[in-house]
Amino acid sequence: MRRELAEELGIAPPFHERFGGDPFFLTITRTRGVGSHTDVTLWFVFAADRSAAIEPGPREFSQVRWFGLDDAAAWAGARLDPQMHRFVAKPSAALNPAGSAR
To answer: Could you report the per-residue pLDDT of 81-100, keeping only the tens digit for each?
Structure first.
């Protein structure tokens, strides 16, 4: 995953110290549109600096940007993975066991 981030986004953050380098979450989702298929996704947690520049590979992405776990308005909706809300809840709960998402 670190190699993929370096190749596709031009960043090389370390894995989050609390969650390690193993997949943190797994989702199976039917994609939308022409060529629909079942997408199996392994989700990882990295400790990245949101002020770092992202340099996306032009053949990989049409748009990229940083957003925080507590910035639900930025990642909610039809543009991102429909399982995003489930993924965000997991590390948020682990980092804030009192129940407050930060």
So the answer is: 788 888 888 888 888 776 54
Q: State residue 32 phi and psi, 5-degree precision.
A: -105, 165
Rounded to an integer, what distance in angstroms lies between the CA atom of residue 28 and that of residue 7?
24
CB atoms within 10 A of CB 61: 11
* Backbone angles phi and psi of 6, in degrees to 5: -65, -45
Q: Which residue has the higher pLDDT, 58 or 20?
A: 20
Q: Identify the CA nearest to 86 among candidates 98, 67, 69, 99.
A: 69
- Which tokens belong to 4? 């993929």
Neighbour tally for 51: CB within 10 Å: 6
Q: With CA atoms as reference, report the closest residue to 16 among 36, 32, 2.
A: 2
Across the chain, mean pLDDT equals 83
